[in-house]
Amino acid sequence: MLRFHTYHSPEPPSFPKIDPVLLAKGSYRGDAGIFLNLRDDDPKWADIREGNSEVRSHPVEWLAHSLQGHGLT
């Protein structure tokens, strides 16, 4: 019997505001930051405050929870 499955893309990870995150993919892999919010214009992107206090946007799928805490250096 042939079964049909609808592919659902996985839910992006969710992060509480001011949660420490790490860029797990992409060209800035390994950089730490603080999750600020999902972008209003595209919720697949997130604003992250990086260690130099600059706010940049990255794809949510590149983010991972960080165990480092909030003390970025």
What this model shows, in words?
- The protein has a domain at 20-65: SH3 type barrels (Roll).
- It is globular and about 25 Å long.
- It has no helices and five strands.
- The chain has strands at 20-23, 32-38, 45-50, 55-59, 63-65.
- The protein is an all-beta fold and 73 residues long.
- A hairpin with a 4-residue loop joins strand 3 and strand 4.
- The N and C termini lie far apart (58 Å).
Q: What's the number of extended β-strand segments?
A: 5
- How many individual helices? 0
Give the % helix. Answer: under 10%
Low confidence ranges? 5-9
Order of helices and strands: EEEEE
Question: How much strand?
Answer: 25-35%
CATH architecture of the domain at 20-65: Roll
Radius of gyration, in Å, reads 15 Å
Q: How far apart are the termini? A: 58 Å
Shape: globular
Mean pLDDT score, rounded?
Answer: 80
In CATH, the topology of the domain at 20-65 is named SH3 type barrels
The first-level CATH class of the domain at 20-65 is given as Mainly Beta
What oligomeric state best describes the polypeptide chains here?
Answer: single chain
> Biggest sheet, open or closed, and with what strands and sense?
5 strands, antiparallel
* Spatial arrangement of strands, main beta sheet: 4-3-2-1-5
Structural class: mainly beta
Quick tags:
73 residues, 34% strand, five-stranded antiparallel sheet, mainly beta
Short structural description:
The protein is mainly β. The protein has strands spanning 20-23, 32-38, 45-50, 55-59, 63-65. It has a domain at 20-65: SH3 type barrels (Roll), CATH 2.30.30.
